[in-house]
Amino acid sequence: MTLADPEKIPMSTIAQTRSSAKAPARVRDPRLDFFRGLAMFIILVAHTPQSWFPLVIPARFGFSDATEIFVFCSGMASAIAFGSVFRKQGWWMGTARVAFRCWQVYWAHIGTFLAIAAAAVAMNASGLGIRDYVEQLNLGFFFNDTPQNLVGLLTLTYVPNYFDILPMYLIVLAMMPFVVACYKAHPALALALVVGVWIAAQFNWLEMRAEPWSDREWFFNPFGWQLVFFTGFAFMSGWLPKPPRNRELALVAAVIVVVTVPFAYYRIISAFPAIDAWRIENDILIAKTDFGILRYVHFLALAYLCWVAVGKAGHRILPPTGDAPLAAVWRHVLAWIMKVGQQSLAVFITSMFLARVLGLALDMMGSESLFNQVIVLFSGFAILIVVAQCVGWFKSQPWRRAQVAK
Description:
This protein is mainly alpha-helical. It has helices at 30-47, 66-89, 91-126, 133-136, 140-144, 146-155, 165-185, 187-202, 222-237, 247-260, 266-271, 273-281, 283-286, 293-310, 325-342, 344-365, 370-395, 398-405; strands at residues 16-17, 26-27. It is built from 18 helices and two strands. Strand 1 and strand 2 form a beta hairpin. The chain is globular and about 55 Å long. Mean pLDDT is 89; it is low at 1-6 and 8-25.
C-alpha cells in the first residue's frame, strides 16, 4: 500500500476532503476512516464509568485493544497528512508541519484536562451524583497543590492517568522528522531507530515521569507505543510492502487471536490461577504501558484478519448499489462511522469529556438497568456523530464556497 496508489481505490468509494476552495481533493482510504471510527466508539465505551459494555469490547478477548487501532491508524493518517510535505517540500517544511500539529495536540491536551477537571468539580458541587467525581479520576492531587501541578501540567511533568493518550501521541509525532531523516539516509537506519527506541522502553531506559512527587511513568510510554505508530506510517508510506492475502497467513493470524483469548478474558483468568500467574511472570510481554511484544503480535494478527475480511480497497464494507432498505441503512451507518474516523482528534477529545457526563447520567438514572445502559451509550454515540458532522462542516469552509458562488 503506498500513498500514490493505495490499492487503486475507486474514486466512487472514497470520501474526499478539501483544504480550500482551490486545493485539489485528497483521496481518503475508506478502510482507514472506517476502523478509526470504530475505535472512537470503542474508546467511548471503555472510558464510560459504571457502564457494563466495557466487559464485551475486543480488549477483553485479546492483548491489544482500541488504543492500538487508534495509534496505528494515526500513523497511517500521518503518512497521508505529512508524508507528501516531506517528499515535495523538503524535510524542514515537513518538520514545520509536524511541529504545528504537535502544537495543536498540546493545547488540545491542556484544554481537555481543564475542561474535565472543571466538569468533575461541577458534578460534585451539583449534588446530582452519588460519588466523588474528582477522586474518581484521582485528581485530588492536582487540587491539593494546584500551583505546582499547574506548572507540571503545562510542562507535561504532571500527566495523570486518563489524560496520557494525547501526550503520548504528541511525543510520537515529534519523533516523525527524525524517523523520516533516517529513512532518507537509509531504510535500515529508520528501522534501527524505531526498534531501538522500543527496546529501550522495554528495559525502562526511556520513559516519561507522570508526576513530580513519585517515579510513576506515563501510563502510555510513547517510546514503546511509537512502534505501532510507525508501523502504520511505514505501510501507508510504502516503506513496507502490503502483506499477501492467502489462507496460510490468515490461518496463522486466526490461531494467534484464538489462542490469546484464554490469557486475556477476565473470567478465564480468574478461574485458572496458573494463567494469572503466567500473566504476572510475563508482564513485560503484555504490558500496556511499554507496549509489550505480544500486544504487537496480537494486533498485527487481528489487523491482518480485518484487512483480508474487508477485501481489496475495502469493497466488502461498502454498501451495495440499489435502493434495498438494508443497503440504505448501512449506507447511512457507514457514512456516520467514517465521518467519526475522519475527525478523530475532535471526536476523541469530546469522548473523553462525554464519558464522564455519561457516567454521571448512569448514576442518576440507575446503572443496574440494561435499558438505561443502552439509552446512555447510544446517546453518547449520537453526540459523537453530531460532533464529527459539525467539525467536518466547519473544516469544509462553506463560507468560501458561498463567496465563490456570488
